C-alpha cells in the first residue's frame, strides 16, 4: 500500500469515498490518517459520498413498554432513504442490548409477552431492515452484560459475548466473590460456545446499566464498580483487567467512551465554580497508560459519546445536542419519536450508530439459511 506520508491529502480524498470497513483498516496504519479520518469535516464528507448515516439509537421505557428512536448527529440524510427504526423486527418487547457502532449492526432481545416463552436473541441491520433470530444461549443464567463486534467484512462475520451470573449455590464453589459465565456466539459456526468462567476481583462488579461496552482494536471494554476496566479479546477468547488513571481511582463519576478509535474515560470536576469534563484515552491498546487529551467546559448536559474528535454529543432528559469543542457552538438534535415526551422518562440509553445501506449476510455461513425464511429474515 502507498505510504500515507507520500501524499496524505490524496489518501484522505480516496478514503472519503471508501466504506467504513476500509477506513477502519487504514486508521491502523498511520497516526495522522487516524486523526484526520475522525475529524467531523471528513466524516460528513464520507457520509455523503458513501450514502451512509451516523447518529444514535435512543431507547426509553414507558411502564413495561420499550420505545426507540434514531437521532442523526452529523446531518447527512441519504437520498431515497426511509426513516430508520426497529419497526421491521418481530412483534414483542424488543430492546437493544449491544451494537457495533462502526458497522450499523445491533443485538436486540425480544422478551415475548407469552408465559413460558424464552427471550429471542436477534441481530439486525436497521438501514437494510435485515434481521436474524439466533439460537438461544443458556438462558437459565441471568444476563449481566452483552457485547457485539463485527470481526470481518468479506465474508461478513460477527461475534457476541454474553456474561451471565451463576446461581448462588454454584457461585460459592469458586474462590472469588463473583463469577460470571462466559459464552461467545460466532456467526461462522452459528452457535454459542461456553468458555472458561470470568472471575471478578473481590468486591468488584461490572457497573450496573453500563449495557453497551466500548469497542476498540478488537477488544470490548466495561467499567467495574472499583474503577477497573474489564477487557475481552475476541481473537484469543481471553479477558483481563487494568486500572483507570491513578488520580481517578476513587472518582464515582467515571464513564467509558471511545475517542479517535481508542478507549477513553470521562471524569467530572469543578474549577473556580465552573464544571468541566476531562477526557482521558488509553495510549496503546495493549497497555494501561492513560493520557489526558481534552478539557470540555460543561453546558449542563452529560456526554453521551464523540461523533468525531472535535464534536461531542450531549444529552439530558429533555433532549440531545452536538457540541463543537473547538468553537463552543452547540446544535440541538431532532428526536423524531411520537411517544417521546421530554422529562417523562427516568432513564434512557444511547447506542452510537454508523451505517451504510449495503445488505450483509447475517447468518454468516457459506451454506447459510434461506434469506427469505420466515423466522430468519435477512
UniProtKB/TrEMBL annotation:
Pfam families: FBA_3 (PF08268). Residues 97-293 form the F-box associated beta-propeller type domain. InterPro entries: At3g26010-like, F-box-assoc_dom_typ3, F-box-assoc_interact_dom, Kelch-typ_b-propeller. PANTHER family: F-BOX ASSOCIATED UBIQUITINATION EFFECTOR FAMILY PROTEIN-RELATED (PTHR35546:SF16), F-BOX PROTEIN INTERACTION DOMAIN PROTEIN-RELATED (PTHR35546). This is F-box associated beta-propeller type 3 domain-containing protein.
